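Hi all, posting the design record for the shared folder.

TITLE: backbone redesign
STEP: 1 of 1
STRUCTURE INPUT:
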């Protein structure tokens, strides 16, 4: 028999003799064209490992996937917490208003001086409120037309057909439907008082600001009372640090990063102020802890020396920095998992200790290198085989060979020559010899 992948006929015979004839389907020679011999060769891997290779390989594969996923999540947390400058999770700010009449949104990071904001008048759209009518009473309106010209100068005329059975609310609804489907800069709705049973049609402009007027004319408009303006369109009038300003909208852009929303008139000026936000930093640390614990959990739940090595490295890191971690509200429980004291972490964030601890590039790097150590472990775990025993690696490879055999079972001679030449198979035979 010729040499195959470094295995001579003599080695094959020795292997056969050692295992006995029953290992190869009862024959007295090892036949490479025999499917039974091929199956028994795969079976030898199970004998050597002392396990069922298929089930063990499934466990190893699941472990490998879990390690890789947990490592990727942990690497992402480390990357987020390692960002510097404008991208730092600790370099975030917020703006606050002490008056409900003014709300504020700030998307920048730079500190700004407090400002005083007063609201004398809100911007509003025109409104025409119709006559209140008994909703379920038969309408006195007759079939007729009306016309609307919106603030943009666009006009539409409508005809409304009224039947003898139509109630006042029916007619109001017909008019509202025509207005709302016309594509004009106005909308219509019905307001109903359940106590009195009365309803009215209300036509409102869609755009606020002075000059955004519309007109409703015609017999049907007069019948329903929507031809009269009950609220004029107007600009907002407000002050910033005493300087009066106007706006067609209640949404005020002060700068590219700072915007105000005027909600109501104010008797006293609102104070809009800057403050540093720790929320993003704390949330990023929570994510780091959760992902650290997920990787620890994966290591603990796989019975393998490689997984034990991963668990020990994680635990050694947290033990090394236990005192410093405690100062920012992170402790390790009896099972090796990290846990957070929310109150203590908030205090650490407010004092700057949390950011300082996680700054791996600080001058105190020797004391504040936790993030680097965790990142290194996550980077290494990105290749799960770094935390597997050789047996675990071999088991996966053996199963790869077995799967290949099952896919090519019809031609056992082709299988014998092909699967032995798989790169993974060399580890299998190394284990045998």
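Okay, here is what came back for every position:
SEQUENCE:
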């Amino acid at each position: 028999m010729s040499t195959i992948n470094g295995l001579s006929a003599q080695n094959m015979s020795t292997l056969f003799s050692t295992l006995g004839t029953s290992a190869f389907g009862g024959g007295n020679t090892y036949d490479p064209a025999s499917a039974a011999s091929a199956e028994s060769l795969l079976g030898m891997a199970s004998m050597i490992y002392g396990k069922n290779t298929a089930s063990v390989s499934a466990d190893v594969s699941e472990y490998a996937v879990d390690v890789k996923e947990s490592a990727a999540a942990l690497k992402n947390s480390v990357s987020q917490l390692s960002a510097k400058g404008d991208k730092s999770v600790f370099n975030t700010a917020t703006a606050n208003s002490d008056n409900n009449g003014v709300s504020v949104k700030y998307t920048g990071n730079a500190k700004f001086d407090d400002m005083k904001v007063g609201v004398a008048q809100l911007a509003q759209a025109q409104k025409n409120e119709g006559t209140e009518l008994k909703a379920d009473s038969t309408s006195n309106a007759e079939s007729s037309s009306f016309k609307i010209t919106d603030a943009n100068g666009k006009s539409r005329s409508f005809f409304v057909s009224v039947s003898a059975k139509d109630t006042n609310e029916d007619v109001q609804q017909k008019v509202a439907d025509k207005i709302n489907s016309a594509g004009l800069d106005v909308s219509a709705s019905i307001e109903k008082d359940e106590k009195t049973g009365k309803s009215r049609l209300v036509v409102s402009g869609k755009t606020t600001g002075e000059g955004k007027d519309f007109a409703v004319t015609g017999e049907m408009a007069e019948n329903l009372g929507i031809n009269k303006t009950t609220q004029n369109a107007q600009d907002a009038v407000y002050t910033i640090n005493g300087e009066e300003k106007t706006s067609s909208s209640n949404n005020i852009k002060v700068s590219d990063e700072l915007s105000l929303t005027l909600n109501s008139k104010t008797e006293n000026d609102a104070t809009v102020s800057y403050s540093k936000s720790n929320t993003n930093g704390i949330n990023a640390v929570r994510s780091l802890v959760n992902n650290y614990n997920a990787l620890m959990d994966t290591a603990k739940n796989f019975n393998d020396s490689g997984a034990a090595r991963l668990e020990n490295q994680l635990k050694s890191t947290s033990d090394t920095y236990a005192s410093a971690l405690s100062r920012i509200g992170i402790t390790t429980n009896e099972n090796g998992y990290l846990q957070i004291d929310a109150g203590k972490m908030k205090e650490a964030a407010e004092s700057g200790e949390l950011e300082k601890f996680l700054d791996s590039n600080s001058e105190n790097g020797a004391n504040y290198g936790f993030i680097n150590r965790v990142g290194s472990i996550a980077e290494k775990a990105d290749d799960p085989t770094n935390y597997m025993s050789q047996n675990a690696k071999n088991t996966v490879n053996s199963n790869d060979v077995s799967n290949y055999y099952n896919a090519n079972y019809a031609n056992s001679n082709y299988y014998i020559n092909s699967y032995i030449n798989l790169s993974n198979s060399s580890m299998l035979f190394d284990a045998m010899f």
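COMMENT: The domain at 127-224 is CATH 3.30.70 (Alpha-Beta Plaits).
Let me know if anyone wants the other runs.
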